[in-house]
What we know:
By secondary structure, the chain is mainly α. The chain contains eight helices and no strands. Pfam families: Ald_deCOase.
Amino acid sequence: MPTLAASPVMDFQSETYKDAYSRINAIVIEGELEANDNYTQLSEYLNGYKDELIKLAKMEKKHMRGFQACGKNLSVTPDMPFAKAFFSRLHDNFQTALAADKLVTCLLIQSLIIETFAIAAYNIYIPVADDFAKKITEGVVKDEYMHLNFGEEWLKANFETAKAELEEANRANLPLVWKMLNEVEKDAAVLGMEKEALVEDFMITYGEALGNIGFTAREVMKLSAQGLAAAA
Length: 232
C-alpha cells in the first residue's frame, strides 16, 4: 500500500497544523459516529446478524472516543459542523436507501465505501501522525479491515441477487468519494497526507473488495472508472 515517510519537520503544535487537524480530526470522529449509527440501524434489518452488527457498532463508538482523545492530546477542538456537512451526501443516501429497504445499497455505502475511505485515510495518516495518534490509529485500522470483511462476505453470499443494485449504488455513490477528497486535499496536505496516495490506497482496497464479492476484473475496472469519470 502507498505510504509516506514521517516528516522530521512536522510541527504538531503550529497553528497551521492545528487548524487543518481540527477538520481532519472532526471527519474521522464523525465517520466513526456515522458507522456506529449505520450498523445499529442495519442490525434491525439484517435477520440473523443483529449481534454481529451491534458488536461492530460498539467498536466504531470506541474508535470515535479514541479519535476524540487524539484531538484533546493536541488541544484541538474538532470542527464537527464541517464534518457533518462533509458526510451529509453519503448520510442522506444511506438513509434514503434504508427507508426503501435497499440493504445492498446501505452495505455498499457503509461496509465498502466508508470503510475503505477510512482504511485509506488511516493507512496514509499513520506514518505522519504524532506518536499518540499513531498508536490509536494503528489499532483502529485493524478493526476496519474486519468491518470491510463483514460487508464483503454478506454481499458475496448474496451476489447474484445483489449485483444489479450494487452497480447502481456504485454509480451513485463512488463519485462522492472524489468530491470528499477534493474538499480536504489542502488540510490533508498540511498533515503530510498526499491526495494521490489516498486515492491509490482507496482504489486498491475498494477494487479488491469488489473482486472478493464476485465482480470480474473487467467489471471492477468499469465500476472504478464510473467514479473517476464522474469526478473528472
